[in-house]
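The freezer alarm interrupted the setup, so I double-checked each line after restarting. Inputs confirmed:
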Amino acid sequence: MIDSNYKIVCLAGGVGGAKLADGLAQIVPPENLTIIVNTGDDFAHLGLTICPDLDTVLYRLAGVANEATGWGRAGESWRVMAEVARLDGPDWFRLGDLDLATHLLRTHLLGEGESLTAVTRHLCRQFNIQPTVLPMSNQPAPTMIESNGRIYPFQEWFVREQWQPPVSRIILPDDVRAPAAVSLALEQAHIVVIAPSNPFVSIDPILNVYPIREMVMDMPRAVVAVSPIVGGTAVKGPAAKMMQEMGLEVSPTAVAQHYGDLLDGFVYDQQDKGQMDDAAIPTLSTNSMMYNQVDRRQLAQNVLDFATQLL
Amino acid sequence: MIDSNYKIVCLAGGVGGAKLADGLAQIVPPENLTIIVNTGDDFAHLGLTICPDLDTVLYRLAGVANEATGWGRAGESWRVMAEVARLDGPDWFRLGDLDLATHLLRTHLLGEGESLTAVTRHLCRQFNIQPTVLPMSNQPAPTMIESNGRIYPFQEWFVREQWQPPVSRIILPDDVRAPAAVSLALEQAHIVVIAPSNPFVSIDPILNVYPIREMVMDMPRAVVAVSPIVGGTAVKGPAAKMMQEMGLEVSPTAVAQHYGDLLDGFVYDQQDKGQMDDAAIPTLSTNSMMYNQVDRRQLAQNVLDFATQLL
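Predicted 3D structure, all chains:
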């Protein structure tokens, strides 16, 4: 554990966010660590409310994540989904049997009138997760993708279309507000870590929730982002492809520029060392590839050491 | 197959209804057989729309029913539900993995705007079921049970409380209407068979849907019911207990009296032979216990032969 009472907030999307959250959870006392998770790619499917990024973070922190995919549960089985497919139901979004239990329980509790924050707390308790995990909002805040004049709900673009339709615009909702617990965590945070998640469809949706961007911006302490772009491509997912389609350079520098004034420091991979020597803000070049638990812990430690120097 | 063009409608609840429906399906050409199924015990659970009687009938006609229980699927597994329980979710209504696929698909299709009739048609096609199976209504028509001044949604009384709270009143909804397909089937029917289902919570909810009772009553042809009461008790479920609590005799005669003018004939078990010799309507005493497919076919044959004589 780091020897400090610094309160840490991590903004996280799915796989990459979950990995850095796990690294942080290994070294930050749980009462000092809050993970705020993107819910922009949540959707209703087969009658269930599905929160892919929240579940990826929860399963990772619970130690039940599928190591091979980064999402879903270890030891998963697919009996229900095979039968849905046999009955000619929609099977483009694959829901494992263990994973389904989470969606059924969440949908049940939401139906009982519980907030997504309360449901997430329930799941953390059941999975014995110590840090605080919070959805960015209790309201639906769907991210939409515009491509070739058509507007896709996020998961239809991301999973069903395998993020192939070129992105011309990312549409984030207006008037979404953060739960009180999110505002409180940001108010008390000394360090905000922006995980190496997709800046456009994982982190921007979080920052879009009022007043998260405003609070991160106004905070007097350190805000540090980790680049999801390494060696000219995205470690996982569509970030690089999206940057090309939006006319951006696919580089850590472009990611840092996207976040702009929000940042007090920026962490990028050692493969790209030297690329940001002229950056206007402090940077750290280090190994950011998180293949295992030791990598995750080490990156978290390096990020926090770097951020602590900025305080 | 029976050598006739008689069109047969069967009113069915769950296990007993499904068994007689299966017997009828063995001998009636599929284009001449329509099963109208109780949906009064349908409910929303864990976000899913669950139709227990429809599923019992479908699984039986599809040949995938659990022979031991009479409900649910053969070869069922319980991985999802075990995980829901582990996460401290509600597990009083046990949903098997294969069964869940039906509920997910149904909930999905209803969410797409399909009627329950259309969803049932889709399931029949996927399960290769030839006769027509129809829900009594496309509208929600929840049966409620009043007990000790408390009102229970049906499944909470039936499954969660294991039908132990004494029944003081059965509350059926007002203003529920039958789909056009139900009215058409009744209009064309030569014979209506009321299955040996619970008269109060399986058959009455069907008759309560406008204009089913009126059409069954006004039909010039044969309406025949099969007693679910055999040897002073119910073959399955709470019918006998309910009759006692409502101050009725637990006998085939009391069942026939309950249906009253609706009936043109009544079938009861050979165990009770002689009990209805003084009945005001024609009766048939025969083996009504359906332990296997041969029993089911034989009872169906006997019921139709009896009904045909009444035409």
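Quick read of the result. Chain A has a mean pLDDT of 95.
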